[in-house]
Amino acid sequence: RVRQLDAAAVELSRQRTALLRELNAIQPPIRVLPTETLSFIFQFVCPLPDFSPTTTSSPPLVGMQSAIRDTSHWYHMYLVLGQVSTYWRQILLSTPQLWTTIHLNISCEEAESEAMFLGRFLDRSGNLPLTLSFQYHEGYTVPASTLVHETVDAQLLENLPRTKKLYVDNPPPAWFSRSSPYLMGLTDYYLGTVDEDRLSEPSLARCPNIHTLTIFNVYAPIGLPSPCLVTILDVACASLDNIFQLLLQCPNLVQLYVREMNIPLDDSTPPTKEFVLKQLEELRFELWDGDGPWFDAFIDNIRLPSLRVLCWSNWNTPFSISSVRNFFANLPPKLRTLELHKDIDSDASYLADFMSILNRLHDSTAIEHLAFNDCNPSFVGDVLQILVPGNGEKLRFPQLRKITLDDL
Fold first, then answer.
1. Would the pLDDT of 402 be above 50?
2. Which of 217, 188, 212 has its CA nearest to residue 202?
3. Most buried residue among 74, 144, 353, 367 by CB atoms closer than 10 A?
């Protein structure tokens, strides 16, 4: 029995020696590439989540939501690379470009572990610009002065000055008062679901370099810096009076996305004064319900002398046809792209009125691209029929070069 055990030990030792030879043969190729080259390769293997719009016509919010969905795959690749060898792990941890984008889901139960996660990213990101994304869970309660967790708040504030893109959903009570003084270099700000019962009026007045601003489910008025450099504004689920105030504070807008406007809860009177967005080139509406003077006031009073792209979605629901007619009558000759979305609920009289509006567009615009998305086929057919001139009639949309059906 003892001899059998001795023989087995000898055999295992022999197998161990053979395996070590194989391991030694594997390790050198891993170390062949220089550190700088492997670091560069890792940056391609682990591309950071892109929080930019997914297409040129997508609002910033769409890019952010898509990037957040990709974060689990993104972190998984870090774990895979780190398990290959100690050498690879050292390179992974010492490549600051891989640690500059941070997304946290913060809840009462996970706050401390998320704080540890945040601290490690901040330590490893060097002095490079940061993209930070914080989603605070509903019901997340913290001491009045806490941002994420007491173990990391000081480090977070120290690193906020190098933050370029910031996404905050359902922020805690201390968010604006504590973070704003450190956001001088911020260029992209997403702010969502501000709880007015927990927060005072949100102010971004200390963020002078914001160029892209996304507001989602925020019904409190928002103060912006003066002068305001915002060129892209994406507003969804907000009251019309606050949207008006935002537009008046953003004279340099180039792109405007407006979705889910709501009438104010109080009895305030809609504005009657005309306002001009001189530099706006792209306007996209996505409106699902609502009616009344506030909606009409929005399109009755806005003037867009530089508009080149108009996306008109569910145009029949919130606006009176007279306001729609006035709006289209004031479109500038520079308009080049007209996108029509979701007319499914349109009744016959509304369609007839809108067809007459389109029929007159050729007199004042030079449309080159006509697009339809989720439109009733009969409506598409009626619009296309406009393009065919009758006997002795002028050619409608003589500059038309492209027709798109459902992004095809």
1. yes
2. 217
3. 367
